[in-house]
Amino acid sequence: MKNLFIILALTFCLTNLKAQFVTIPNANFVSWLQTNVPSAMNGNQMDTTNVAVTTHTYINVQNLGITNLTGVQYFDSLKALDCTNNQLSFLPSLPSRLLSLTCSQNQLTSIPSLPNVLGYVDCSNNQLTTISLLPNTIKYLYCSYNQLSNLPTLPTSLLDLRCYNNLLTSIPSIPSGTNYLYCFYNNLTGLPALPAGLLQLNCSYNQLNSLPVLPSGLSHLICSYNHLNSLPVLPSGLEFLICSHNNITCLPFLPPIQSEYYYSPGGPPVIDFDIKNNPFTCLPNYVPAMDTTLLNYPLCSAGNINGCPVTTTGLYEQTQTFMNVYPNPSNGSFTIELNNNQKQSIQLSDITGSVVLSQYMENGKTIIDVNHIAVGIYNITIKGSNSVSNKKLVIVK
């Protein structure tokens, strides 16, 4: 029996010698650890060698009022860390295998060296004035709502950069594979060359006097509230153009943008075409998204003031049918107004393409009853003898 006691005592001592306990200073983080890795915890002491710690891959401690994450550095296998909306003023060293870091909505004034395998970083809504060297593996960098006056060299792997609401005066060279650039609400006076693969650009609310050449595949351009005098050639597939509140006197040929409205609960509708609040006096061409105010502008000609170019005839000429639909959303009926009195067919189709209503109009204005049609998003198609126009309609009850 005595020998057995000695053996058990030695085993206990060896086990404790192997264990490496560290103090976790924050009570809220201690509580999370006691719930999620209980075998590693003894009060506020954590065994850094415990398998529950060394093999844990995901930590989500959102909204827990944590002020100190000391201890997270011992999670050797950690792949993702989300500490959104806490009271952190600093982060400890990060595990070397970390792939995703979300530390938004804190009080961080700096972030530690980032692991060289990191692919996703969201450090928005903090008090950062600088960001350290970025590993070349980062694909998504979200650093909006900080106090950044500059950015480090951007990694060649970058796909998505969101750096809006900062104090940036310039942006470094943008990698060739970047698809999304949102840099609005800064102090930018210029943009670097845009990558060929860029799909969306929002550079509104800056001090830009000009834009670089636009990539041919760009689908969204938002550049309102700048000092632009003109726009570069617009991509033929552009679907979203907002360039209001500038100093544009001449517009390039406009792509055939269709007017659509997007609705979000509790928010105002978002339009996809706005060129107003500019000093132009004529238009290069008309497009379906234009309302009656814009359709009253004349087409540019060689003799126009400001030297605007001769209009390019073709896809959309003045004979194109343009419609105004209101109210939209509709809760029982809506009115269609056209810019001509020719006989037109009207079709209303659902998102599957099935026609739910079909009729004609001849006087340029008609009221349509949709009380019998289900709530949803529909497409209105107006067909004349040589024109077709489309517009989205939202039906609510």
Folded structure, characterized:
This protein is mainly β. The protein has a domain at 323-395: Sandwich (Immunoglobulin-like). 9% of the residues lie in helices and 22% in strands. The protein contains four helices and 23 strands. The chain has helices at residues 2-18, 27-36, 51-54, 292-295, and strands spanning 21-23, 41-42, 45-47, 58-60, 80-82, 100-102, 120-122, 140-142, 160-162, 180-182, 200-202, 220-222, 240-242, 261-262, 270-271, 273-274, 323-326, 333-338, 344-349, 355-361, 365-369, 376-383, 388-395. The strands form five sheets. It has an eleven-stranded parallel β-sheet with strand order 4-5-6-7-8-9-10-11-12-13-16, with no helix packed on it. The chain is elongated and about 85 Å long. The N and C termini lie far apart (83 Å).
Major sheet characteristics? 11 strands, parallel
**Helix-strand topology string:** HEHEEHEEEEEEEEEEEEEHEEEEEEE
Specify the overall morphology.
elongated
Give start-end ranges of low-pLDDT stretches.
4-17, 311-320
Report the radius of gyration as a whole number of Å: 29 Å
Share in β-strands = 15-25%
Structural class of the secondary elements?
Answer: mainly beta
Tally of separate helices: 4
CATH topology of the domain at 323-395: the name is: Immunoglobulin-like
What is the average per-residue confidence, as pLDDT, rounded to a whole number? 85
CATH architecture of the domain at 323-395: Sandwich
By DSSP, the count of extended strands is 23
Work out the helicity level: under 10%
Q: What is the multimeric organization of the chains shown?
A: single chain
| CATH C-level label of the domain at 323-395 | Mainly Beta
Instruction: Tell me the strand order in the biggest sheet.
Output: 4-5-6-7-8-9-10-11-12-13-16
Distance from first to last alpha carbon: 83 Å
